[in-house]
Design brief:
The protein is α/β, with parallel strands linked by helices and 241 residues long. The protein is built from eight helices and 13 strands. It folds into two domains: 104 residues, Tetrapyrrole methylase, N-terminal domain (Cobalt-precorrin-4 Transmethylase, domain 1); 124 residues, 2-Layer Sandwich (Methyltransferase, Cobalt-precorrin-4 Transmethylase, Domain 2), CATH 3.30.950.10.
């Protein structure tokens, strides 16, 4: 049988790819983080749903692999399953389950769906960095932020803040302000594709003082990013051709 690693996008039915919908419909059991399971239950009510809370990712994958020995199973991930998702862990743990085939089904990650809300902030070279130090040492995150700013990349920032990491976005802005100007155009989108979606475009100096949460994706422009009609636009250089 098969284990599908399904990226379902931001959480709205319309934001899912056709491939993701078909994969979920073809599975007997849907496994996921509790919040994600609740998002999808209303769309696929005839399925059996299994869930684990945050930090129980290994238990979740183990459960899915065991079920996939006799059934088609989907592990659901918000956005894309290979972008801070469960696909890598599933492959690592699958070595003990030789009879289970794995299929990755791509989804629309927050860097893409969020940039569409803000305008076009990622039209040129960009990188994606998570500020969560649960699995990555903060020293490594700092270095990545510094290198991205030094290289004048536009940056999409995931997991920018939480109750335990209330000042991490401020720290990130301070690092990037060593190489970027105060008026660098930035923005954020909260609850992308879900009820209560909001966004704002601002300067890097203003972003430093913003209070955001785990449901927010932050975008920091490069030296050429500009605001046009309230939207965040990073030119690729077509006008210079």
């Amino acid at each position: 049988m098969k284990l599908y690693l399904v990226g379902f996008g931001a959480g709205s039915y319309d934001g899912m790819t056709i491939e993701a919908k078909k994969a979920i419909e073809n599975c007997d059991i849907i496994v996921g983080y509790t919040v994600y399971v609740e998002l999808l239950k209303k769309y696929f009510g005839d399925k059996t749903f299994l869930s684990t809370p945050m930090t129980k990712e290994k238990d979740r994958v183990e459960m899915a692999l065991k079920e996939a020995e006799t059934k088609n199973v989907a592990i659901i991930c918000s956005g894309d399953s290979v972008v801070y998702g469960m696909a890598g862990l599933a492959y690592e743990m699958s070595v003990e389950y030789n009879d289970v085939g794995i299929c990755v089904v791509p989804g629309v990650t927050a860097a893409i769906s969020g940039s569409a809300v803000l305008g076009a902030p990622l039209t040129h070279d960009f990188c994606v960095i998570s500020l969560s130090d649960l699995l990555t040492p903060w020293e490594k995150i700092e270095k990545r932020l510094e290198c991205a700013a030094m290289g004048d990349f536009a940056v999409a920032i995931y997991n920018p803040s939480s109750k335990k990491r209330a000042d991490y976005l401020m720290k990130a802005c301070d690092i990037m302000l060593k190489y970027k100007t105060d008026d660098t155009v930035c923005g954020y989108v909260k609850n992308i594709g879900r009820d209560g979606e909001t966004f704002e475009v601002m300067t890097l100096k203003e972003l430093r003082e913003c209070h955001v949460d785990m449901f927010t994706t932050v975008f920091v422009g490069n030296s050429e990013t500009k605001m046009i009609n309230g939207k965040m636009i990073t030119p690729r250089g077509y006008f210079r051709k």
